[in-house]
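Exercise 7.
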Amino acid sequence: MKSASLVIGTVVLATTVLFLCNFRKPSYTADIHALKEVVEMLSSSDFEGRNAGSPHDSTIALAIAARMASYGFEPYFSEGPLHRFSYRNVRSWNVVMVYRGKKTSGTLLVGAHYDHLGLGGKGSGSLRPDTIAFHPGADDNASGVSAAMEAARLLKETTPRKRLKKDIIFAAFGAEEKGTIGSAILADTLDKMGALPSLMINLDMVGRLRDSLLQVGGTGTFQAADSLLDIHLDPSLPLVLKKTESGYGPSDHHVFYRARVPVLFFSTLPHTDYHTPYDTPDKINYPGMAAIVAYVTAVAHAVVAEGFEPHYRETMDTRSLPEQVRFKVSLGVIPDFTYEGEGFCAGTVIRGRPSHKAGMKDGDVIIQVNDRPIKDIESYMDALTGLETGQLVRIVVRRNGQIIELEVQL
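Solution. The predicted structure, written as tokens, is:
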């Protein structure tokens, strides 16, 4: 005899699949002009790289809030659209706004972080730590904020209040680059209110669509996520999904998943301009962004208007991310955030940096640094903390099934 929980789970899954099979996909058209306008505004030199806690921080937050108000969103909290927070030596804001239906139960949150690295320099997280220069952060993460705003607008514009089953929350997080501080404080605040969302959608670096590849994380965090994603992927969109199950990752969604909220994390592939002064608006693929917004809106619409209910489940990966660490050195690699095997996968090896000069290649999996075995991104970051400029480091990588030893001069 099946247990009661198994029977209930089977019924829920069958109902969900039946719903998805009978769902008619509406089409959504994102406003490319609006997407570009927001990216260029946030990437402006006037904001000097959007460093969390800078004199420009509240101005940026207010500009985002004003635009969302023009779309018909209102402050989520009674004190206004800006949710101020302080943590350690960081003072910043989250922008939290909502579009409410007439008879709703629960919420869906679409979010993205708006801060970046300011002028860079040592300890900033820049991959050019010896260079003091304006870091525009067009892809990281002006693109995510722009896409989240447009998806929220489309959801509101295409769904009458009386049809909404869940309220739509838009959130622009502060201080993500300092360690996902703003999103963590918002998740904690909502948790204490008993108001955590039914689903959190996170958009981080969605402006460099290449080869149609769109990374989607969190597919293991709720039942029928794969079906939801597949049924809403319009074949006319230039998108190929690369899915990962884990609810953890190097962005704001993991703090909501840690609070037992189902999550989806959308991102395009990493690139060599990441965390450098060269992440500029002219390199953004706006038609690609528009396609991603259309897709995200369709997925979100199923939750807020068509009755799809995300049922939380734990993924196999139960490790939380460590707090953000500042390193004295950098190997010059950008991680492949979709890699789920043992070791640390170098998604992109930056030309001219120590690892590239030593012969490391894109896709190499680092399994040892000096005498320290590397099991995952956490042990990789732990290994970096003990390295010094000028040091000769022995790195062992796995490449196409072969073990290769490299000497990297830092």
